[in-house]
DNA sequence: CTGAAAGCGCTTACAG
DNA sequence: CTGAAAGCGCTTACAG
């Protein structure tokens, strides 16, 4: 039988209300009783029942996250560790825990969110997906429940969210390759329905247009966030008569497949083709040669998401901004300078 | 204002008790009232307050995990994703959620566990660490609270746990290398205070002794679970007059550093030296050449941990077994066969 | 088959 | 400064 406030009160010879006030450091309590009650709490090994506390206070001191379902598992898996760590670190620092569940189907996902929100188990929700037409976003808005979206939502532009400026990031990468003298630049993209894919492609196109460089549709390959995707793309790309001298790749793991494909076809990076990828997960510095990659600040995204959501919860003034996490181009050895005779 | 059982009762013209019984599918309720109440619940958008439910039922339907603190962060980080996914998948399947927190110091860790356990927020705890003299293990035993340990505990042998047979795994790897003709086999180990390091080293020694092969202490290097560790070890190892022809490495990431070191020194894998590592995380198939590695079933460990813990909670018969997850040697291209003239 | 009542362990006006 | 009482939203003997 765990010890309750009542037990402590009895031993201390005070009322339960007084014990409760001591716990919450109520100002109008005599230092003497406070000291006594505190001593007895420790002696008896008292610890408040958070569930009971939560029931009356209507606060859980908990944030909720739903794991992405299988379809996007792979993409998110790579980030997952760093991301969750960022979320938990900041949440813990502010005295919040993290409640997690996963949904295999969309309806299971909705069920989990409902359980969290209507079951009063969390004070706020972090949404990992940025799909079009997401019913969870709709639900949370209807409930007027605090939440933050990772990524961008086109339908719900006025929602609290953290994201990268993926258009700008891809633009920056493209411009960098152009500055090295590349004129034929290809793009190995991710699933076209994802906002992140669309944004990066847009930045790439913008940079090419601005520099008056050609943009051929057969230089753009769409795939999954899988090594295989990159690998397979190469047999096509490398056999092109007008093949690109540089490739932008939407993810490090995909880039790894690209490197493998290129190597197997007997070509060299960066001598035959330059590569620049995204996400800067640990793999990117482990390839031969080490890959240049865009660091999108995954840990910081998680950290910031927690922080912004908690502010919303605590100040109860639902600000609806979009927070942009800065990106950084990490230059390694996968890009070569072009000199003019090679350009033909 | 969320709708409560009382609200539903009022509209349905029954008592709250009846509504409660309908929700829990109590047998002695007329199908007619049941149907009516259910209809009204849906109409009113009723969802039970899990906190209130938890207070009276004394069940939270939640498992707790504490994230490892920084010291071991890196080692566990690599597994983390897969591991948590295994835990969550199985927990969700059985209707449980996962509550997470992290502690930077040992006392913060204890605080988090206490909050979970004494605060009645979880029904069981999964312990990720397998340190010596772990106060959290002691606490949970004293509280007689359901928990499962990942790894092995020497002081607490009679505790529910999931682990690999690391002695056997290292033994198997060593025997495999011996079968290829290697006679000088080195070991790049992890932090010596970790049980996993000790176990693997033991299996390695056992196999060598059994085959009457030499075991020199300068063939054994202890380090961290970091790429740098492996990298640094190589300048020493490769300059040995009697340098090993094969190396067992405690982790894929460390092995990556080893490959880098070997390559920079102008040697080749597996021609100059064979490598076999542990954990089989995604990196291992991405190196050049692809690394042979021991698959220790990380996802399955998480999955099994959830499952065993939940059985303990639900059947309330605290069985205290040690569950061993089988390992598999994944043979790739990093080990060469030795022929006799090379052996000298 | 159903309801009234007590209680889970807390908090917090209200009163003194 | 402190206590008695009501209540958070549920469950569950007990009685009928």
Give the helix tally of chain A.
12
For the record, the CATH class of the largest domain in chain A is: Alpha Beta
Mean pLDDT of chain A: 89
Ends of chain A: how far apart?
Answer: 83 Å
| CATH architecture label name of the largest domain in chain A | 3-Layer(aba) Sandwich
H and E order of chain A: HHHHEHEHEHEEHEHEHEHEEHEE
Largest sheet of chain A: 6 strands, parallel
Q: Identify the quaternary structure here.
A: homodimer
Protein chain pair with the most extensive contact, residues per chain: A-B, 47 and 47 residues
What number of structural domains do the residues of chain A give? 3
Describe this structure in words.
The structure is a homodimer. Chain A is an alpha/beta fold and about 350 residues long. Chain A folds into three domains: about 5-50, lambda repressor-like DNA-binding domains (434 Repressor (Amino-terminal Domain), Orthogonal Bundle); about 60-165 and about 300-325, Response regulator (Rossmann fold), CATH 3.40.50; about 165-295 and about 330-344, Rossmann fold, CATH 3.40.50.2300. Chain A is built from twelve helices and twelve strands. The first copy, chain A, has helices at about 5-10, 15-25, 30-45, 50-55, 70-95, 105-120, 135-140, 165-180, 195-210, 225-235, 250-265, 300-315; strands spanning about 60-65, 95-100, 125, 145-150, 160-165, 185-190, 220, 245-250, 275-280, 290-295, 320-325, 330. Chain A has a six-stranded parallel β-sheet with strand order 2-1-3-4-5-11, with helices on both faces. In chain A, strand 1 (about 60-65), helix 5 (about 70-95) and strand 2 (about 95-100) form a beta-alpha-beta unit. The N and C termini of chain A lie far apart (about 85 Å). The mean pLDDT of chain A is about 90. Strand 2 (about 95-100) of chain A pairs antiparallel with strand 2 (about 95-100) of chain B, so a sheet runs across the interface. Chain A binds a DNA duplex (16 and 16 nucleotides) through helix 2 and helix 4. Chains A, B: Keywords: DNA-binding, Transcription, Transcription regulation. Chains A, B: This is LacI family DNA-binding transcriptional regulator. Chains A, B: It comes from Marinicrinis sediminis. Chains A, B: InterPro entries: HTH_LacI, LacI/GalR-like_sensor, Lambda_DNA-bd_dom_sf, Peripla_BP_I.
